[in-house]
Amino acid sequence: MRTFHRLPRILAITVSLAAIVATSACGTSASDEASPASTPVAAAAAPAPIDGADGVVSQNRLGIGTAQAAAQAALAKCQADGLGFVTVSVVDRAGNVQAMLRGDNAAQHTVEAARQKAYTAAAFGANTGDLSERAKGDGATVADLPGTLFLAGGVSVKSAGGSIAGIGVGGAPDGMRDQACAAAGLDAIAGALG
User: Fold this and answer.
1) Is 80 exceeded by the pLDDT of residue 11?
2) pTM, whole model, 2 decimals?
3) Residue 184, CA atoms < 13 Å, CB-side half-sphere
4) Which of 47, 82, 87, 167 is 20 to 30 A (C-alpha) from 40?
5) Quick one: pLDDT at residue 40?
6) What's residue 17's pLDDT?
7) HSE-up of 132 (CA within 13 Å, CB side)?
C-alpha cells in the first residue's frame, strides 16, 4: 500500500526531472526563450498537393487475380523444369506480399529468399540478376539494405513506365533458373499490365 500512496510524488519528481533533461538536451530554457538574442524558428510551409486537392497519392499495384496468375505461371514453369521445390512470391512495390506459392518440398529458406528477391526487383525496378553487380564492392553496398537480396531470381513488373511489383523465385540450384521461372510469371500477365 505504501507504494501506491507514494506513486503521485514519484511521478511529480520524474516529470520535473524529464523536463529539465529535455531542456538541457535541447539547449534552451525558459530564460533563453525570453531573451531578445534568441533566434525564432521559421515555420516550414506545407508543400502543395500534387496528386489532387486532397493530397492523396494513388498507387498502381497488381490485382489479386493477376498476382495469383503470375505466381501460378512461375511455379508451373519451375515444375515443368523439374524444380517443383521452389517458392514463388509476388509483392507490391513496398514489398507487401500479394501472392505466394510454396512448391512441394520447398525448404523454409526459399520462402524468405523469394520474397526478398521480389522486393529487390520491385524496389529497384530491375531484375535481380542484373542488379547483382551493384551489391559488390568494399565497404557498405546496397546489399546491406534490410530485406533485399541481390541474387538472380527476381523480376520487376512495370506498368506505365514504372515498377509496380516484383516476382521472386527461390530454391532452384541456380539463380538464373529461378529467374527464368519468375520471367514466365511476368510473361503470363504481360497483357494485363497496360
Assistant:
1) no
2) 0.71
3) 19
4) 47
5) 54
6) 45
7) 12
- The vertex-12 CA angle with 10 and 18, nearest 5°, equals 100
Closest to 152 in 3D by CA, of 127, 116, 185, 133: 127
Concatenating the DSSP letter of every residue in 114-127 gives HHHHHHHHHHHTS-
Give the sheet arrangement for strand 154-159, strand by strand: 97-102, 87-92, 162-170, 154-159
Q: Are 74 and 167 in contact (CB under 8 A)?
A: yes
The C-alpha cell at 27 is 539547449
3-state SS of 55-84 is: CCCCCCCCCHHHHHHHHHHHHHHHHHCCCC
Q: What is the distance between the alpha carbons of residues 188 and 184, in angstroms, rounded to a whole number?
A: 6
Q: Are 75 and 181 in contact (CB under 8 A)?
A: yes
Cell 531573451, residue?
A: 35
Mean pLDDT calculated for residue range 149-164: 94
Q: What are phi and psi of 102, to 5 degrees?
A: -110, 115
Q: Distance between CA atoms of 38 and 178, rounded to whole angstroms?
A: 62
pLDDT tens string 94-117 = 999 999 999 999 999 999 999 999
76 confidence band (pLDDT: 50, 70, 90) = very high
